[in-house]
Amino acid sequence: MKIAVDLPDWTPYQIEESFLTKEPHNWFGPEAIVIEKRFDDFTKGYEGPRDDRGGIPRTAIPKNIAEPLLIEDAYWAAYKTFVNDPDGTFAKQIVPFFQE
């Protein structure tokens, strides 16, 4: 028995690809460790001015170190909103590299 089915001229689950973004780093893997190590190494050797909290001004941090950390801060800020964290203990562990 043969059954003929008219299929539509579209592919299911078509999406607008401009809405998709690729994470530049795996924040759970070794890339995150390398990025944080670069920042740690930079801070150990930094001898320039500090802000009123003792932090290094963001403008004093090289772009290749600061940009991934800014992306990481944004990633974890968004990620913690999706975690089932009724008592807030997970959110308290998320400390951004840069304070605004």
Topology, element by element:
Layout: H1 30-45, H2 63-79, H3 89-93
Helix pairs in contact: 1-2
Account of the protein in words:
The model has no long low-confidence stretch (mean pLDDT 83). The chain has a domain at 26-93. α1 (30-45) crosses α2 (63-79). It has helices at 30-45, 63-79, 89-93. The protein is elongated and about 80 Å long. It is built from three helices and no strands. With 100 residues, it is mainly alpha-helical.
Largest sheet: none
- Reading the helices and strands in chain order gives HHH
Beta-strand residue percentage: under 5%
In angstroms, what separates the terminal alpha carbons? Answer: 69 Å
Tally of contiguous helical segments: 3
**Which geometry do the CA atoms define?**
elongated
Structural class: mainly alpha
Low-confidence stretches: none
Mean pLDDT: 83
User: How many strand segments?
Assistant: 0
Radius of gyration: 22 Å
Q: What helical percentage do the residues reach?
A: 25-40%
Brief digest:
It contains 3 helices and no strands.
Keywords:
elongated, 100 residues, mainly alpha, 38% helix, single chain, 3 helices
